[in-house]
Specification:
The complex is a heterodimer of chains A (about 170) and B (about 190). By secondary structure, chain A is mainly alpha-helical. Chain A has nine helices and no strands. In chain A, α1 packs across α2. In chain B, α2 crosses α3. With about 190 residues, chain B is α+β, with helices and mostly antiparallel strands. The relative contact order of chain B is 0.07. The N and C termini of chain B lie far apart (about 90 Å). In chain B, about 50% of the residues lie in helices and about 15% in strands. Chain B has three domains: about 50 residues; about 40 residues; about 80 residues, no CATH class. Chain B is elongated and about 110 Å long. Chain B contains five helices and five strands. The chains are: A mainly alpha (about 170), B alpha+beta (about 190). Chains A and B meet through α1, α2, α5, α6 and α8 of A and α3 and α4 of B.
Chain lengths: ~170, ~190
């Protein structure tokens, strides 16, 4: 079984995208892991643990929204999330700035588009897995992902101009 | 419905095109600056977000430990509930046994009461089908009389077997659980 800290980190990052609030993301992570532990008998395929946890987190979040127990808020700026000393040594300041802009653009998307894009780009889930995680259908995932991509390209259009820069090589 | 090659952009990015359609779109990229720019930018955005994922692991340092403690506490609570339930069941059975013994209604006592009730039942039947076939299959009126009226309530129950009459005896006192099955073909008084 994957180490607990791995699950905690994944769920926390996803919860942060759901809630836009650090404190609430912590609460959701804790509740998600506890619910998962109580329902662990229901998990038939350990390979599906990640999607299963995301789905529980989504349900926990929805329960909170339904009860009005969530705090409105946006995610903090990336600097608050990533202390500078944990950044990759190879990462230049400009690359770091681009990552920051990309995350800020993602966090400014409407909730469902943000969730879908996060699970697609950061967790590299398939459309089906994203649909399972968010308790929706594949068509909705595709539609939201398309809208999210279009908005991201609009917001980050300037990055395309820097493509030829050696410091921005993706290889 | 796809109208122009540009409309296949999302399906191309999702790797959702057939091999032939994919080849067509790649050819289209060489001619369409807009799509080419979009694909290039999309790859860069995906890379940036993937990079962000690696670094967004700045989980509060205390969170994992806190959850670990909660999970352990939850496991302890569950064990306690299981043990508690088992203990409660044992106590219940011991208490029940003690109560029955104290009331003089242990197994033997209860058995005695049931037997006594059975003995105290007086069974009478009146043959109303004389001359109509074998005695075991003739209709009869069965009358049950209890020495004490409070012993039981008797309710006749439909029987599939014409040679068997069934009566439920609902005891009016504890430990008198019984049903009367009277084979009036064999037990005629």
């Amino acid at each position: 079984m994957t180490d607990l800290s791995d699950h905690v980190a994944r769920v926390f990052r996803f919860a942060l995208r759901l809630t836009g609030n650090h404190h609430e993301a912590e609460d959701i992570t804790q509740e998600t892991l506890l619910r998962a532990w109580r329902k662990r008998d229901q998990l038939r395929d350990s390979a599906a643990t990640r999607v299963w946890l995301f789905r529980i987190a989504t349900n926990v979040w929805r329960d909170r929204v339904r009860r009005g127990r969530h705090a409105a808020g946006q995610t903090r700026p990336l600097d608050d999330e990533i202390p500078s000393d944990v950044a990759s040594p190879a990462q230049t300041a400009s690359a770091r700035d681009e990552v920051r802009r990309a995350v800020e653009a993602m966090d400014s998307l409407p909730p469902r588009q943000r969730e879908v894009l996060y699970l697609h780009a950061c967790e590299e889930l398939t459309h089906i897995q994203i649909a399972e995680s968010l308790d929706t259908n594949v068509e909705s995932v595709k539609a939201n992902l398309s809208l999210a991509r279009k908005k991201m390209r609009e917001q980050l259009a300037a990055l395309a101009d820097d493509e030829t820069s050696p410091s921005h090589s993706t290889t | 419905m796809t109208n122009t090659p540009c409309d296949d952009l999302d399906r191309f990015l999702d790797d959702d095109l057939s091999p032939r359609a994919r080849m067509d779109f790649v050819a289209h990229l060489a001619e369409c600056a807009s799509c080419s720019r979009a694909v290039s930018l999309e790859k860069r955005i995906d890379w940036l977000l993937a990079s962000a994922k690696m670094e967004l692991g700045a989980v509060p340092s205390s969170l994992t430990g806190k959850i670990e403690r909660e999970l352990r506490a939850s496991a302890r609570r569950r064990s306690f509930v299981t043990i508690g339930s088992l203990a409660a069941a044992i106590v219940f059975f011991l208490a029940s046994g003690a109560w029955i013994t104290w009331n003089g209604r242990g197994r033997d006592a209860a058995k005695g009461l049931v037997e006594t009730a059975a003995i105290d039942v007086k069974v009478e039947s009146q043959d109303i089908g004389e001359g109509k076939g074998d005695i075991a299959h003739r209709p009869a009126i069965v009358k049950l009389t209890f020495n004490r009226e409070s012993d039981a309530i008797v309710i006749p129950v439909a029987s599939n077997d014409p040679t068997v009459s069934i009566f439920w005896l609902y005891p009016t006192a504890p430990a008198r659980i019984s049903s009367g099955v009277l084979d009036h073909g064999n037990q005629r008084p």
